[in-house]
Design goal:
Elements (H helix, E strand, L loop, with lengths): L1 H24 L2 H11 L4 H10 L14 H5 L25 H4 L11 H12 L13 H14 L18 E4 L2 E4 H17 L4 H13 L6 H5 L9 H16 L8 E2 L1 H29 L5 H6 L1
Parallel strand pairs: 1-3
Antiparallel strand pairs: 1-2
Helix pairs in contact: 2-7, 2-9, 2-12, 6-7, 7-12, 8-12
The protein binds adenine (ADE) and zinc ion (2 copies).
Length: 300
């Protein structure tokens, strides 16, 4: 009796641990983009972020960057579900805001790029303190930081018919999963295990080294945004659907087993997208919280 009781509790514990780990895996891409962004914030932006972060974040933006994923299935936050992605008509490898940015009920602007414009506009009303605001700017900061990560995940700008790869069942090595999950989690997870001693911080440091060494001449191109709105999500979404067509969907037919060939050829794409997401999140926050007029920022 005691033995079987223990094994039941044991099994529940293992299951719980597994659920917690599955949950934590989803956080890694967002943790990486926000950590990279934190290292690139201007003094003004870092000060504003510090004021706006919830207390439980302990001053660390990266620790709360997955919050929108954690609440999106909760009844009160259901409306935020469509804000995590934007899909194009099937097999169309380009993105157009007017054509694509709507939810399944056809309501315009309810998509990831629309959400980035909206939360950028809200954060522009920040006047130096979190109190007496029309908008909840803590929420706006967490949503904006998360959605800038999402728009860089190629399959968050995928095809309507397969829900950005969610309905394409594949095997990742021996595990049954779907193509969307491969790009959200599996490639990053396998990279951590294979190359980074299972340590996310080591992986982030390697990406940061790439940014300052190999990609340093690309940074100003990545950051470039002269929009009066101070956010430029449309080119990021266009890049994503092109990458989705060229790398994510390619050779990933339903039922296929994806392993070394796919992993090793797609990992550089994932690492570059995490870097771009981080650099552009910092650039966007630096523009939003800059005390200088836009003309001076874009000339700098
Ligand atoms: N649901 C429908 N399309 C999606 C996408 N591209 N990404 C995430 N969830 C989705
Ligand atoms: Zn998301
Ligand atoms: Zn996703």
């Amino acid at each position: 009796m005691v033995g079987s009781g223990f094994s039941f509790i044991g099994r529940v514990l293992v299951l719980l641990q597994l659920l917690i780990r599955i949950h934590a895996w989803g956080k890694e891409g967002h943790h990486a983009t926000c950590k990279i962004a934190e290292g690139l914030l201007s003094e003004d932006a870092a000060a504003a972020v510090k004021v706006l972060l919830p207390k439980y974040a302990n001053g660390d933006l990266a620790s709360v960057c997955s919050w929108p994923d954690e609440i999106k299935h909760n009844y009160h936050w259901r409306w935020s579900g469509p804000l995590h992605y934007v899909d194009t008509p099937d097999f169309r490898c380009n993105y157009e805001y007017c054509r694509d940015c709507h939810d399944t009920a056809g309501r315009k602007d309810r998509c990831v790029t629309g959400a980035i414009y909206n939360y950028t506009m809200q954060l522009m009303t920040y006047k130096g303190s979190a109190s007496e605001q029309k908008y909840n700017l803590t929420e706006a900061l967490l949503f904006l930081s998360h959605f800038l990560g999402d728009v860089h995940q190629p399959l968050h700008v995928g095809f309507l018919g397969d829900e950005g790869g969610n309905t394409i069942t594949v095997r990742w090595y021996r595990r049954k999963t779907n193509l969307h999950h491969v790009w959200d989690n599996m490639i990053i997870e396998s990279a951590m295990k294979t190359f980074y001693n299972s340590d996310l911080e080591v992986m982030i440091q390697a990406i940061q080294r790439n940014i300052t060494e190999d990609w340093s001449s690309d940074i100003s191109l990545w950051e470039n945004c002269s929009s009066a709105s101070r956010a430029c999500p449309d080119p990021y979404a266009s890049e994503s659907i092109r990458l989705a067509c060229k790398y994510a969907y390619r050779n990933a037919t339903p039922g296929i087993t994806l392993s070394d060939d796919y992993f090793l050829s797609r990992l550089p794409v994932v690492e570059r997208r995490l870097a771009q997401g981080g650099v552009r999140l910092a650039g966007t926050l630096n523009r939003i919280f800059s005390t200088k007029p836009l003309t001076l920022i874009s000339a700098a």
